Amino acid sequence: MLTIVLIDDDPISTFVTEKLISKNVSQACQFFKYQSAKEALKEISSIKPHYLFLDLNMPEMNGWDFLDRFNPSDTEAEIYILSSSVDERDINKASQYQFVKDYLSKPLVKKYIQNIFN
Description:
Layout: E1 2-7, H1 11-24, E2 29-34, H2 37-47, E3 51-54, H3 63-69, E4 78-83, H4 88-95, E5 100-105, H5 110-117
Parallel strand pairs: 1-2, 1-3, 3-4, 4-5
Protein backbone atom coordinates (compact mmCIF):
# COMPACT_ATOMS: atom_id res chain seq x y z
CA MET A 1 0.00 0.00 0.00
CA LEU A 2 1.24 3.46 -0.90
CA THR A 3 1.37 5.96 1.92
CA ILE A 4 0.80 9.55 0.81
CA VAL A 5 0.95 12.74 2.87
CA LEU A 6 -0.92 15.84 1.66
CA ILE A 7 -0.03 19.12 3.38
CA ASP A 8 -2.30 21.96 2.33
CA ASP A 9 -4.47 24.40 4.28
CA ASP A 10 -7.15 24.28 1.55
CA PRO A 11 -9.43 21.26 2.17
CA ILE A 12 -10.91 21.48 -1.35
CA SER A 13 -7.47 21.27 -2.94
CA THR A 14 -6.60 18.32 -0.70
CA PHE A 15 -9.87 16.58 -1.60
CA VAL A 16 -9.26 17.05 -5.35
CA THR A 17 -5.66 15.83 -5.07
CA GLU A 18 -6.68 12.75 -3.09
CA LYS A 19 -9.46 11.85 -5.55
CA LEU A 20 -7.23 12.32 -8.61
CA ILE A 21 -4.50 10.14 -7.16
CA SER A 22 -6.95 7.45 -5.99
CA LYS A 23 -8.61 7.35 -9.41
CA ASN A 24 -5.39 7.21 -11.43
CA VAL A 25 -3.07 5.00 -9.37
CA SER A 26 -3.57 1.24 -9.56
CA GLN A 27 -2.15 0.53 -6.08
CA ALA A 28 -4.15 1.01 -2.89
CA CYS A 29 -3.32 4.30 -1.19
CA GLN A 30 -3.48 5.47 2.39
CA PHE A 31 -3.68 9.25 2.77
CA PHE A 32 -2.60 11.40 5.68
CA LYS A 33 -3.96 14.93 5.29
CA TYR A 34 -2.73 17.96 7.18
CA GLN A 35 -3.94 21.54 7.08
CA SER A 36 -0.98 22.45 9.31
CA ALA A 37 2.61 21.96 8.16
CA LYS A 38 3.64 22.21 11.81
CA GLU A 39 1.48 19.19 12.74
CA ALA A 40 2.69 17.23 9.71
CA LEU A 41 6.31 17.88 10.67
CA LYS A 42 5.71 16.38 14.13
CA GLU A 43 4.25 13.15 12.71
CA ILE A 44 6.05 12.64 9.40
CA SER A 45 8.81 10.36 10.70
CA SER A 46 6.29 7.95 12.24
CA ILE A 47 4.17 7.82 9.06
CA LYS A 48 7.09 6.99 6.73
CA PRO A 49 5.27 8.11 3.56
CA HIS A 50 6.21 7.07 0.04
CA TYR A 51 5.04 10.43 -1.35
CA LEU A 52 4.53 13.87 0.13
CA PHE A 53 2.73 16.75 -1.58
CA LEU A 54 3.36 20.17 -0.03
CA ASP A 55 1.63 23.49 -0.54
CA LEU A 56 3.76 26.60 -0.07
CA ASN A 57 1.34 29.30 1.06
CA MET A 58 -0.07 28.33 4.45
CA PRO A 59 -0.54 30.17 7.73
CA GLU A 60 1.59 29.57 10.83
CA MET A 61 4.24 27.51 9.01
CA ASN A 62 4.53 27.80 5.24
CA GLY A 63 5.99 25.21 2.88
CA TRP A 64 9.44 26.80 2.90
CA ASP A 65 9.54 26.71 6.72
CA PHE A 66 8.51 23.06 6.58
CA LEU A 67 11.32 22.23 4.12
CA ASP A 68 13.87 24.13 6.24
CA ARG A 69 12.93 22.11 9.34
CA PHE A 70 12.34 18.80 7.59
CA ASN A 71 14.96 16.08 8.06
CA PRO A 72 15.12 14.05 4.83
CA SER A 73 16.85 11.17 6.61
CA ASP A 74 13.60 10.59 8.57
CA THR A 75 11.84 9.30 5.47
CA GLU A 76 12.32 7.92 1.97
CA ALA A 77 9.42 10.00 0.67
CA GLU A 78 9.43 11.56 -2.76
CA ILE A 79 8.55 15.18 -2.06
CA TYR A 80 6.63 17.33 -4.52
CA ILE A 81 5.70 20.96 -4.08
CA LEU A 82 2.14 21.47 -5.24
CA SER A 83 1.48 25.20 -5.45
CA SER A 84 -0.74 27.71 -7.19
CA SER A 85 2.29 30.02 -7.49
CA VAL A 86 3.94 30.12 -10.90
CA ASP A 87 6.55 32.62 -9.74
CA GLU A 88 9.99 31.76 -11.20
CA ARG A 89 11.60 32.63 -7.85
CA ASP A 90 9.55 29.93 -6.11
CA ILE A 91 10.40 27.37 -8.79
CA ASN A 92 14.12 28.23 -8.54
CA LYS A 93 14.05 28.16 -4.74
CA ALA A 94 12.41 24.72 -4.79
CA SER A 95 15.22 23.37 -6.96
CA GLN A 96 17.71 24.30 -4.22
CA TYR A 97 16.26 21.59 -1.96
CA GLN A 98 17.92 18.37 -3.13
CA PHE A 99 15.18 16.19 -1.64
CA VAL A 100 12.37 17.97 -3.55
CA LYS A 101 11.63 15.90 -6.66
CA ASP A 102 9.59 18.48 -8.57
CA TYR A 103 7.56 21.67 -8.45
CA LEU A 104 4.04 21.17 -9.76
CA SER A 105 1.32 23.73 -10.30
CA LYS A 106 -2.17 23.26 -8.89
CA PRO A 107 -4.38 21.58 -9.62
CA LEU A 108 -2.62 18.24 -9.91
CA VAL A 109 -3.41 16.76 -13.33
CA LYS A 110 -3.49 13.21 -14.64
CA LYS A 111 -0.26 13.67 -16.62
CA TYR A 112 1.67 14.59 -13.45
CA ILE A 113 0.19 11.63 -11.61
CA GLN A 114 1.24 9.23 -14.35
CA ASN A 115 4.80 10.64 -14.31
CA ILE A 116 5.05 10.44 -10.53
CA PHE A 117 3.57 7.01 -9.92
CA ASN A 118 4.92 5.12 -12.97
